[in-house]
Amino acid sequence: MDRIHRADLYHEQGYSCAQSVLCAFCQDFILDEETALRISTGFGSGMGRMCEVCGALTGGFMVIGLKYGKVITDGTKYGTETEKTYALVAELAKRFRKRNGSILCRDLIGVDLRDPAQRQRAKDEGIFTDRCGGYIRDSVEILEQLLID
Length: 149
What we know:
10 helices, mainly alpha, 149 residues
């Protein structure tokens, strides 16, 4: 099963955009599903329902960190791994913004998820299924391009 299909299945089961993207890559990094789901829970709905950076992107940022993140330090804040990770995070965001016009959840879905009435409207109108599903697929597709470049 390909990653986009895996991400779709997670989302269909009720997991957030961040959870769906991160878990689509679990097998690539021998990351157990439960840990991935727990780590990424707070990043959904634009980070804790604040409607900030899209969860599909923050899930992608975590994937980039899994592949390139810094684990050994020479005592400096930055270094080769950090620079590569930051560059790829910025590139993922740039490509996602180019496709979708924004990286912010509130702009992408046009709903303030902090407001229960608007959140219900988003459910009723299928925004999470239609729009968010597309953002998840975009993030996974761009990640696949970036991780092989």
